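Format is sequence with structure; example below:
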Amino acid sequence: MTGMLTGRTAVVAGGSTGIGQEIARRLAVEGADIAVAGIDPADEARDLVTRTGQRFLSDKVDVSDEDAIEGFATRVRRELGAVDILVNNAAVVLLADIDHVTFGERRRTFAVNVDGPFLASRRS
């Protein structure tokens, strides 16, 4: 595959499903090798990416866990090379009135939506 991202490595946090999965597929179409970090299985993303001929790896990663991010970043560098593109797409969405959100749910949302991109950006 010859595209404008040929020879590049892209990490998509939250790339197992939905928008993240489509981002991973599109980056692969443009020639990037793809690494997906997320809590959901990435089987469909793997199929979409490998059909383009690009390399793919994924791990179950809690993006708010510093050790998990470090381990994933090490694996990506070892297997795919330096990270050229980082997409921080992992997120938690709470669809509830504030009166029905527990403090633990709020903390988890903050950890994934704020700490996760910080940790991933620092390690990529």
